[in-house]
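Worked problem 6 (solution included).
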Amino acid sequence: MLKASIAPDGQEYQLPNELEDLEEKKILHRITEEQRKLGRKIVAVQGLGFVGCVMAAVVADAEDEDKKPLYFVHGQQRPSLRSFWKVPVINEGRPPVNSSDAEVPEIFHRCIKMKKSLRATWHNYAYEVADVVVVDIQLDATKPAFGEADKGYCDLSAFRDGIRTLGKYIKPDCLILVETTVPPGTCEYVVKPIIEAEFSARGINVKKNPPLVAHSYERVMPGAKYVKSIRNFWRVYSGVNDKSREMAKAFLTDILDVENYPLTELENTNSSELAKVMENSYRATNIALTLEWAKFAEQIGVDIFKVRDAIRKRKGTHDNLLRPSLGVGGYCLTKDPVLANWAMNAIFNIEGKLEVAIRSVDINDTMPLHTIELIRTEFPKLKDLKITVLGVSYLEELGDTRHSPSETLIKFLHESWAVVRVHDPYVEYWAEMENVSIQPDLQQAVENADVIIFAVGHKLYKELNPEDLLKMCGNKPMIIDCSNFIDDTRISHYLRSGCKVKGVGKGHIHSLKK
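Solution. The predicted structure is:
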């Protein structure tokens, strides 16, 4: 029986067989020859995840002065059961990600169906013909103990395999641009040596043809400005040698709005890699600080969000103060400090650790437990308590559930034998929590709930009228606001209706009762 890769919408796509592999190689060869005759360079994007798929489309959308595509892009996704479905979905002109950004479906349709400058494939032949390979392989940090991020480490085995594949196929003059967030030292001490070894095995003289490896990290925000966060954003880059830096600069200049968002070149890839993990460690620490003050505000009757707004009026120095919430999720803030901390010893043999950054990860990872503490102020025993969680993605207006704080919240609620229902307008299937069903109907999700948690700030939830929610619910549930998703007017309405209301950092709620 043929194995099938199942898309989030339930559609099944059969994995390719040997005959289809041969046919695919012929198709790739034909397309490449046609594109070269048109004077276009060939780009392969390795990995079509949340960053890679949209990056592939942005590259394919880049135009010359005559409004003609500059590049043809082979988006390469290895044929695994989990991810192969992305290949046929993209080739149908549809994005493999769900986002509130209207430009996402538009750019995929434009590049696949109109410009014909992008095509997805599973075949490694895409690397043989590439002039540039953009590496967007998923690379995670493993945290074996909850709340003990200092024990975290990075398993580079899958990343090494991906780079080794490139070394077996790419031309000696092909630029490898690593976009994946990696531990400092990766390009110099991992990527470059692997490519050198594979080149040597192929009989390529690495002194005459040193690997061309560059690093330029993404700052993707997969929400309402998904595409713009790639094209219209400041980029940092570097390379392992002068030629790789020059090639990276030329490529990035072609595809990004560098006129309004100039590039920043650093002296080596260690610097560029460090910039990304330090940038996100700063943001993680910023958020961790706000939780400490949010708890303080709750105890002394203060609304931390109004305090935050007052502080942020001082532009240039204080306007970047972030906000407390259910917790921190996503692919960057939860792992980047761990990658850097691990690299100190594992790559650079330096003793010690990044104490402030690691402590911030611990605070943020355990932050969802504070929401449970708020529930326990009214319901000390959670057993059989009917709790509805509104939102399971890690960010508003987005369907990305990776490292979502809702995952931690629900796991601990289950451990306390609570009855949990979940709803999210952007998520049909929760890959990280396969045992949890997403209720597609909001009314059924909240019906007879004892507690309703506003976990994610999707527009749908922020605009919910209290009367409508209480009518759908059929009783007077406890309302939990995890990050200022409910304004004071709505909170007052819930209170007048007989609901208990609690909120992270919202110590002023008791005064609204008056």
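Discussion: Residues 4-267 form a domain with the Rossmann fold fold (CATH 3.40.50.720).
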